[in-house]
Design a protein that fits this description.
Strand order of the largest sheet of chain A: 9-6-10-13-14
Helix content of chain A: 25-40%
Largest sheet of chain A: 5 strands, antiparallel
Number of helices of chain A: 7
Strand order of the largest sheet of chain B: 1-2-4-3-5-6-7-8
Oligomer: heterodimer
Number of strands of chain B: 17
Radius of gyration of chain B: 27 Å
Strand content of chain B: 15-25%
Low-confidence stretches of chain A: 1-6
Radius of gyration of chain A: 18 Å
Strand content of chain A: 15-25%
Helix content of chain B: 40-55%
Mean pLDDT of chain A: 90
Largest interface: A-B, 9 and 13 residues
Structural class of chain B: alpha/beta
Low-confidence stretches of chain B: none
Distance between the termini of chain B: 75 Å
Chain lengths: 280, 585
């Protein structure tokens, strides 16, 4: 790769990194304001307003909030159940905030797990996620097929005694591609997803279908290919009997021959990564 | 005379009566007062009192007219609940003048204790109350009234059911006859009757004072039952925390009696035990454990209960050992028992997986959980495990023989080595478990339960699973035989036949006759098939708990397992035809 290309990449990456940081800042700010009695709808609105105030106009998807056993997607059958409800937060309850703002054309998609007050089980699950972050990076660098990596993540989750809950997402994805989005004055959304981003995803899917890859990282046959260069929002989601925990952040995959550069996490200064470092 | 070894005895005088009071244990510890029932004397507690005395100051007394306490003169009107409350207060004032006591009552001891714990003058004198097989007459009165007022079919059935169990109360209201019977033939036959009908081991209990106790005690009924049932107090609210222990096979009291109890007790802890009426004699260990736990929680300010699972009343505090607890059905079963508040021993040959199960179990409600490493097919390892478990954690209350491996392939491709491996784990593992842990269970004589995880393959033949099915059919029959043998010791044995469940059994299964790459491919595609079926092990786990709670003999779990179970009886030919099909993997 030439220097020109990589420096160009860097500016672009910087853009993605700053919006990802903004989103995590939002998650931390909203999490700090959560208290008993706050509903999922209110938590979702708090995220939306916080980001709007800071210039976010478009979304890959609108912010989600899940409380209590909804963090583990207990009895989720239809996608509509992902949308925020009037479930109220209570002390000791786990929660997940998930948002995907688009800022200056750069997309972030993040997931933030926490609990209101101490919850040793939730702490355990959060600690368990560390191994998944390492596993995903290692196997991506090894250029293993996405489907295989998916299966290995699932196996590790089962070994840890937990269930794979990202399977509940549409197409059962553990990750999906994100890209730059053209800024439009009017940015409508469809079923919670920004139309611009959906357009990008659909066109990727069409092109991928012709070329034999998919922008969705799933357990299905269409993901049986090595990692495609680009930005992947990776979201391993652990569930254990009514408690769920996840993180979501961007994994950068390049076509570099150097393993270190062939795949890396966009940012290592994130709340969950800092938390693991503190625990050591 | 007394069977209570090491007890300090004294006499407490109250209202012209002399009460014989016995004390055990360190008087500086919290005081536990045990009140006996009818026809009994304080010696009914002789199994439990010494054990409780290791941690508490245990006080027992003979109720007036029983044992070595004197009887009121005249007898009529001398046994009212008010007078029994006077006695209780006199005893408590003598043995624990400045600290409230923890009260435990069985049968009529519980009936009168309900009076103690619901009247105003004892407020502040009782810290907690554990009630065993004895309802409050006031609550009982309201229970009957509610059902007479609105006799829906269900409520009428409840009323009739309890009526049938209360036949003896009417008998006791006849004059002279009960006294004559007790002092005559009934008194003589009673120990034998107890042994036969209730499983109460003969020995130094009941004591020689039985005929006199029973004759005097008839006045407990005559003085109280009719007035209280017809005019129950409207304000019989408990002023102390209550733990209700309900024997499920009580011949005299229906479980339904306690349905409305939450109305009278603000913070009720429910426990159920599969046993008959005389639990202080037949299940002393479990009762002591529950009393210890309850008293400790009350003394410690009653923290929130950790276990909230559907079977918490039944399995709370019980010791459950599960083999193969590092994955699949074993692990899910461990978690289900943990949610019910059981203490767990998670056994697996994979130490790390077992430790993981134990750790998560503690996080979701198991008061204690330990990981043990053992290969169930290794006789010596299992013997060592049993010794370790019995020494460190106690006798197992529920044993789940779950560990198993898969083996597929035609009979002629299956080598003798394959046969040995699968039989060693699937059959010998179960045999070792039953032999080592079941023996101690039977020896203890306080009930228990053994669950063997068989398979739908135990009754569904298949050309591709000859060895596996044989091993599981053996487990099924072993369970049935053992159930027959252990029934007399009140130990239940259950065979669970799960069917196709999404676990990692496929990824470790052996495919006889396949080379390494072919085996890997077969594992993968069978894993995919099991994944498509996607029947979660958690559902099998809840079937295990249900089966233990209801003491069911054979439980097929998945719909296909249940269907095949029915077919195996009504249309075995269909299963035989199905057995010839070779699945394409």
């Amino acid at each position: 790769m030439t220097t020109a290309v990589s420096s160009e990449l860097t500016t672009e990456l910087r853009g993605f990194r700053s919006v990802q940081r903004l989103a995590y800042e939002c998650a931390e700010a909203v999490a700090a304001r959560l208290e008993p009695g706050v509903t999922e709808r209110e938590a979702a609105r708090m995220q939306r307003e916080w980001l709007r105030e800071r210039g976010v106009r478009d979304w890959f998807h609108l912010p989600f909030a899940w409380f209590g056993d909804r963090t583990a997607f207990v009895d989720f059958r239809v996608p509509l159940q992902f949308f925020p409800t009037d479930r109220e937060l209570a002390p000791g309850m786990p929660f997940i905030l998930d948002m995907a703002p688009v800022y200056e054309g750069y997309t972030a998609d993040i997931g933030y797990s926490g609990s209101l007050g101490a919850d040793p089980l939730h702490d355990r699950l959060m600690a368990d996620l560390e191994a998944h972050r390492e596993l995903i990076l290692r196997e991506t660098r090894e250029r293993r097929s996405l489907r295989e990596i998916y299966e290995d993540v699932e196996r590790l989750m089962v070994r840890q005694g937990c269930a794979n809950r990202h399977r509940a997402y549409p197409f059962g994805v553990i990750a999906h591609k994100v890209d730059r989005v053209r800024e439009r004055r009017w940015a409508p959304h469809l079923f919670g997803f920004g139309t611009q981003s959906l357009k990008g995803l659909v066109s990727d899917a069409l092109r991928g279908h012709r070329e034999g890859w998919s922008p969705l990282w799933s357990p299905h046959r269409f993901s049986d290919h090595p990692p495609k260069p680009g930005l992947w929002a990776v979201e391993p989601h652990l569930g254990f009997r009514g408690t769920g925990a996840k993180f979501e952040e961007i994994l950068v995959v390049t076509d570099s021959k150097d393993p270190e550069e062939s795949a890396f996490w966009l940012d290592d200064d994130l709340p969950h990564v800092r938390r693991w470092a503190e625990e050591k | 005379m007394t069977t209570l070894k090491g007890a300090r005895e004294r006499t407490v005088r109250t209202g012209g009566i002399e009460l014989c009071v016995a004390e055990l244990g360190d008087a500086r510890q919290p005081t536990v007062v045990l009140v006996h029932g009818y026809p009994d004397s304080k010696e009914v507690w002789s199994e439990m009192a010494p054990r409780l005395a290791e941690r508490f100051h245990v006080v027992l007394y003979d109720v007036r007219g029983h044992g070595r306490s004197t009887a009121p003169r005249p007898l009529r009107g001398g046994f009212t609940l008010a007078k029994l409350t006077d006695d209780f207060l006199a005893v408590v004032d003598a043995v624990s003048p400045d600290r409230p006591v923890h009260l435990v009552g069985h049968d009529w001891g519980s009936v009168q204790s309900w009076e103690f714990v619901t009247v105003g003058r004892t407020e502040g004198r009782i810290a907690s109350f554990t009630t065993i097989s004895g309802p409050s007459l006031d609550h009982f009165g309201h229970w009957i009234k509610d059902r007479l007022r609105r006799p829906t079919p269900r409520r009428a059935a409840q009323l009739l059911g309890q009526g049938a169990k209360s036949w003896y109360v009417g008998m006791l209201h006849t004059p002279v006859l009960p006294e004559a019977a007790w002092r005559g033939p009934l008194g003589k036959r009673w120990p034998g009757l107890l042994e036969r009908a209730e499983g109460v081991a003969a020995g130094d209990y009941p004591t020689a004072s039985l005929p006199g106790d029973a004759a005097h005690g008839a006045w407990l009924y005559r003085d109280n039952v009719r007035p209280r049932l017809s005019h129950p107090r409207p304000d019989a609210y408990a002023h102390a925390p209550v733990q209700l222990i309900t024997p499920q096979d009580d011949a005299f009291l229906s479980e339904r009696l306690y349905d409305d109890l939450d109305r009278w007790v603000p913070q009720l802890t429910r426990r159920t035990i599969p046993a008959k009426h005389w639990v202080p004699r037949t299940r002393p260990d479990q009762l002591c454990a529950w009393i210890e736990e309850f008293v400790a929680s009350v003394e410690g300010g009653r923290p929130e209960p950790g276990a909230t699972g559907p079977h918490a009343a039944r399995f709370g505090g019980q010791l459950v050992l599960i083999t193969g607890a590092g994955s699949g059905i074993g692990r899910a079963t461990a978690f289900a028992f943990a949610e019910a508040g059981a203490r767990l021993v998670a056994v697996d040959r994979d130490a790390e997986a077992a430790a993981r199960t134990a750790e998560l179990a503690r996080l979701i409600g198991a008061p204690q959980a330990w990981a043990e490493t053992a290969d169930v097919s290794d006789e010596q390892a299992m013997e060592k495990l049993a010794e370790r478990v019995h020494r460190a954690y106690g006798v197992v209350d529920v044993l789940v023989n779950n560990a198993g491996i898969g083996l597929s392939g035609s009979f002629f491709a299956t080598t003798t080595e394959d046969w040995r491996t699968v039989l060693d784990v699937n059959l010998w593992g179960v045999i070792h478990g039953c032999r080592l842990f079941g023996a101690r269970m039977a020896e203890r004589g306080q009930g228990g339960h053994i669950v063997n995880i068989a398979s739908a393959a135990a009754y569904q033949p298949s050309r591709v699973l000859p060895a596996y099915s044989t091993s599981k059919a053996a487990v099924l029959m072993l369970s049935e035989c053992l159930r027959a043998e252990l029934a007399s010791r009140s130990i239940g044995v259950t065979a669970i036949c799960p069917g196709i469940v999404n676990t990692n059994i496929t990824s470790t299964a052996r495919f006889a006759g396949a080379d390494e790459t072919e085996e890997r491919r077969l594992r993968k595609s069978s894993a995919r098939l099991y994944g498509l079926r996607d029947y979660p092990p958690e559902k099998v786990a809840s079937a295990v708990l249900d089966a233990v709670a209801r003491n069911r003999p054979v439980v097929p779990v998945t719909p296909e397992a249940r269907g095949a179970h029915v077919l195996s009886r009504v249309m075995p030919g269909a299963l035989r035809r199905l057995a010839r099909v070779e699945p394409k993997l």
